[in-house]
């Protein structure tokens, strides 16, 4: 199964040329920051333009404009309630499921506005997978968890091969090979989260949204998930919300700092954000002076 299978849903791949030289990531990276950074220039895959979101009369996001390059890890950081999860849910239109939510602006996936009337949100979510904070495997076998997305999308293919491939990509195959018919709920928390990642990547999405995927896990499981995220960015565009500054510094190529009021204050290479941010408010937040 190739990503090209889904291409026709929203226009051709890579039609957006990068226009921002900031996407060129510098070499000479310090040990602690952005170990996944590279010198590759990447096309924009997700572009937000003047995104505003309200829940009833309360504004949660205020004029968010940003371009996210493909095959990289983008971290969203900021204090509680600043709109990080709301922004993540704009990308795959999960906010559609919240009655009080209203989204204005343009959110493009490879140049096609996902809020256009002709976009089917279910087809969109095939291309934009999501992993949540708390591991949430279904009360089904490990195998059935992985193929779940394929089945509800009526997607054909060699399921055995897809299960093996997805579990290998999620770094879980070696631990569950031979017991695929056991319940996903019998796995440890860290294994459950890797199972959820396998489930999210089985339909071969282009973008993987992760909302604090390691915050419910112990340090060993967290480290495994972090390693995995860096590997996944070779094939997918990963956009991750995290409260953990060290985690953002370790695994992301770009970091977006949201602050109170639903404002995107700074978005830049992770190294720049952590070592030399433009905004004093960002520096204060990063260094723990507030938030
Ligand atoms: N379903 C909802 N209904 C009403 N208001 C909501 C809803 N979801 C979020 N909000 C409000 O929108 C604002 C942004 O919330 P959001 O969850 O996006 O922030 P966040 O930065 O992800 O926070 P956290 O880090 O605590 O998860 C908050 O004021 C929150 O109370």
TrEMBL record:
Alphabetical list of Pfam families matching this protein: ABC_tran
- SUPFAM superfamilies given for it? P-loop containing nucleoside triphosphate hydrolases
Ranges annotated as biased composition (Acidic residues): 17-29
List, in alphabetical order, the Gene Ontology terms for molecular function in this entry: ATP binding; ATP hydrolysis activity; phosphate transmembrane transporter activity
A cellular component term (GO) from this record?
Answer: membrane
Chain spans, region Disordered: 1-41
| Gene Ontology biological-process annotations | phosphate ion transmembrane transport
Which CDD domains did the record assign? ABC_PstB_phosphate_transporter
Q: Which UniProt keywords apply?
A: ATP-binding, Cell membrane, Membrane, Nucleotide-binding, Transport
Query: Where does the ABC transporter domain start and stop, copy by copy?
Result: 46-286
Task: Report biased composition (Polar residues) as residue ranges.
Answer: 30-39
- Read off the PROSITE patterns from this record: ABC_TRANSPORTER_1, ABC_TRANSPORTER_2
Q: Cell division: present as a keyword of the record?
A: no
Q: What is this protein's name? A: Phosphate transport system ATP-binding protein
